[in-house]
Design brief:
The complex is a heterodimer. By secondary structure, chain A is α/β, with parallel strands linked by helices. Chain A contains 13 helices and 12 strands. Chain A folds into 2 domains: 172 residues, NAD(P)-binding Rossmann-like Domain (Rossmann fold, 3-Layer(aba) Sandwich), CATH 3.40.50; 149 residues, Dihydrodipicolinate Reductase, domain 2, CATH 3.30.360. In chain A, the strands form 2 sheets. A 6-stranded mixed sheet of chain A has the order 3-2-1-4-5-6, with helices on both faces. In chain A, strands 8-10-9-7-11-12 form a 6-stranded mixed sheet. In chain A, strand 2 and strand 3 form a beta hairpin. The longest helix of chain A has 17 residues. By secondary structure, chain B is an alpha+beta fold. Chain B folds into 2 domains: 77 residues, ACT domain (Alpha-Beta Plaits, 2-Layer Sandwich), CATH 3.30.70; 85 residues, Alpha-Beta Plaits. Chain B contains 4 helices and 9 strands. In chain B, strand 6 and strand 7 form a beta hairpin. In chain B, helix 1 runs antiparallel to helix 2. Chain B starts with a strand and ends with a strand. In chain B, 29% of the residues are buried. The model of chain B has no long low-confidence stretch (mean pLDDT 88). Classes of the chains: A alpha/beta, B alpha+beta. The interface between A and B is medium-sized, with 23 and 19 residues. Strand 10 of chain A pairs parallel with strand 8 of chain B.
């Protein structure tokens, strides 16, 4: 049995999902020979610690850790002080400076701890730096959940499609934009109406600019370009147009000719823009779904689709990353 | 005169050569041959599109020769434009001189706006337009799109391009 002590940094929607999923799957994972124990959880209010494993039932009903924290330690202190071998970093994303996630990831990787994350910010700001830290310290940095949520994309390209040359990836990487465009097309409603509906349903944030201006999608384009195309690009290298200018009339005109309008991120073109997609295309998915078409030399075009966000769905991608660290031999093992 | 022809060939060796022979005999200059092996017709034939420079008066002779070789000539006509792209524009399309926007494409000589539909919900609200641009080839389509992007940037119009350029 491989015992793995884990620290969770960040206890928002995704953090709750992680606690729930690790708790729910604990016995199944033990059956696979993997004993995952969450020994610390940290948010902005403090940290709860238990070397024998934190009781999920005790904290899942708490929105923050304010009432249950056993220590005032902050994320970086926990990473440095606590004897965990893997850090799950799910603090809020900031793609301008990457903080606080960037500090957390640097500390963990430098300290010889694996990092699994859904936090795009640090990867957009410093992907190659973090990747080098991981390699230098002989640990892994896994980030499937940062692009397309539960939709397998990075592992698909890195492992399953290994041997293929990947020409490009085009896809719908933001569920909020896809929901708004879908509703506008279905009901011929204006953008602002569809946006307020999405906000009421909790699909769009009160300040939706990060999603609807294409910033989130562009962040994913940066991660894919750096991770899968060996590029070294920054956010400012991506040409970004969001969906705020789209009219219901534009969607009707497109529909009449057999098209839908989707916000498409394109690597290695490094563009994010509203794009006409043939209605019959496999990447034409509706609602909050994400999709991606990966064009390759040997396998043609592979299309994947799945839920791009959500607490449990994102936690699922995090769980797969954790398992893959311990249960999959690195590709270079074979060579 | 430049003509385009759509033929359907049987999927056996030598058919393309057989189809090109009448063109050679009638001194047609072949500009482009697109052999759609992947797009078989329901009868299992392979569509081939040819663009040729030739004397139009020779067309009947070519048709007869193709027929006698068992090759179906589905269509032949003056067709300079073999590629097309559908684009949606959003913004103040009329106020920013739609005529000029179209002229900037048409004046290239290699591309034209062939179809246009405009929707205007209100005087102060942005309008939306569907346009179809045809051009003499893939490279020319890309050039036409670049021109449209440039014009749209000047006029603050949003250009929604297709994920891939379609064949006509």
């Amino acid at each position: 049995m491989k015992e793995v002590k884990i620290s969770l940094i960040g206890y928002g929607i995704v953090g709750h999902g992680v606690v729930e999923v690790l708790n729910k799957k604990r016995n199944i994972l033990k059956g696979l020979g993997l004993d995952l124990t969450l020994i610390s959880v940290t948010d902005h209010t403090g940290t709860i610690l238990d070397d024998k494993g934190i009781d999920a039932d005790k904290i899942l009903s708490e929105k923050t850790l304010a009432n249950v924290a056993t220590s005032g330690m902050k994320g970086k202190e926990v990473i440095e002080a606590i004897d965990s071998e893997l850090v799950i970093e799910v603090t809020p994303t900031n793609i301008v400076h990457g903080q606080p996630g960037l500090d957390h990831m640097e500390s963990a990787l430098s300290g010889g701890k694996h990092v699994v994350t859904s936090n795009k910010g640090p990867l957009v700001v410093a992907f190659n730096h973090l990747k080098k830290l991981a390699v230098d310290n002989d640990v892994m940095l896994k980030f499937e959940a940062t692009v397309g949520g539960t939709m397998p994309l990075i592992s698909l390209a890195e492992r399953t499609l290994i041997g293929n040359t990947i020409y490009g990836i085009k896809g719908i990487f933001n569920g909020t934009c896809n929901y708004i465009l879908t509703r506008m097309a279905e009901e011929s409603i204006p953008y602002l109406h569809a946006l307020s509906e999405a906000q009421d349903m909790g699909i769009a944030e009160v300040d939706p600019s990060y999603d609807v201006e294409g910033v989130d999608t562009a962040g994913k384009v940066v991660i894919l370009a750096n991770a899968l195309f060996d590029m070294s690009i920054k956010y400012s290298d991506v040409s970004v147009i969001g969906i705020t200018g789209i009219t219901p009339e534009a969607l009707s005109l497109a529909k009449k000719r057999g098209y839908v309008v989707k916000l498409i991120g394109d690597v290695p073109a490094l563009t994010v823009r509203p794009t006409l997609v043939p209605a019959g295309s496999p990447i034409n998915v509706s609602g909050t779904l994400n999709s991606a078409a990966i064009s390759t030399d040997l396998s043609g075009t592979i299309t994947v689709t799945g839920l791009g966000a959500g607490s449990i769905e994102t936690a699922s991608a995090i769980l797969s990353d954790i398992i893959s660290i311990y249960m999959t031999k690195p590709i270079d093992f074979y060579f | 005169m430049r003509l385009s022809m759509d033929l359907e060939l049987q999927d056996v060796p030598g058919q393309l050569l057989l189809a090109l022979q009448p063109l050679r005999d009638n001194k047609a200059n072949i500009i482009c041959v697109v052999h759609h092996r992947e797009k078989k017709t329901p009868r299992g034939l392979i569509p081939v599109r040819l663009v040729v420079e030739m004397d139009r008066s020779k067309l009947d002779a070519i048709k007869k020769q193709l027929q006698s070789s068992g090759i179906a000539l589905v269509r032949a006509g003056e067709e300079r434009f073999i590629e097309a792209v559908s684009i949606i524009l959003v913004g103040h399309i009329l106020d920013s001189d739609l005529g000029d926007t179209i002229h900037r494409i048409d004046s290239t000589g290699f591309a034209e706006v062939m179809d246009l539909e405009l929707t205007m919900p209100g005087v102060d609200e942005p309008s939306s337009a569907y346009i179809k641009i045809r051009a003499t080839g893939k490279a020319e389509i890309q050039k036409a799109i670049s021109i449209l992007r440039q014009v749209s940037e000047e006029k603050k119009l949003l250009v929604i391009e297709p994920i891939e350029v379609e064949a006509v």
